[in-house]
């Protein structure tokens, strides 16, 4: 074991609230995407009484319920960034970290490693700078847009007297001209999050296999330890 590993590991990285957020976010995103896909491309119509064929109603309910779960857990995750350990605020501190030369040096170093230009990467206790940037720009920012655009469309359907229309739809929809533009951007952003989720899973799995520290199990028990 190198001296770096002896100094850095083991370390308690992900606290319980962060792990709970992560494992609630995963199924919420899955349900949101699947139901959102069918809302945008509905199943063929079926004959008979509407009360006997409420599939689209169930799809919409699952979508809206998952949206509330996604929104609440994201807000609580941001709040926990101010109360949790230093690792809990890493992905939220990217706009500030970008002014640090050391942060950029770590990002470039990690990028070379992911592009197979370096055989080994330096050890990181929490997120490396590239992962921090990816989580902020690839997850946090798109997620905020998805919530705003989603609740704007939700409020439009509920009507002008609803909280969603008054708080979100009334100012968000006019920013983009018409609701169809918001629909289009909402779906494009959803696909961007799908791409992010796929890359995220690949990178985490790759790191768990290739690096000298635990990665996937850390989100289960919170501890990052050296495998050497």
Give an overview in words:
- This protein is mainly α.
- The protein contains nine helices and two strands; from the N terminus they run αβααααααααβ.
- It has a two-stranded antiparallel sheet with strand order 1-2.
What structural keywords apply?
two-stranded antiparallel ribbon, 2% strand, single chain, elongated, mainly alpha, 228 residues
Which structural class fits the helix and strand makeup? mainly alpha
Spans of at least 5 consecutive residues with low confidence: none
Q: Summarize the amount of helix as a percent range.
A: 55-70%
Biggest sheet architecture? 2 strands, antiparallel
First-last Cα distance: 6 Å
Please give the number of β-strands: 2
Lateral strand order in the biggest sheet: 1-2
Give the C-alpha Rg. 21 Å
User: Number of helical segments?
Assistant: 9
What best-fitting shape do the alpha-carbon axes yield? elongated
Arithmetic mean pLDDT: 91
**SSE pattern, N- to C-terminal:** HEHHHHHHHHE
What is the percentage of strand-forming residues?
under 5%
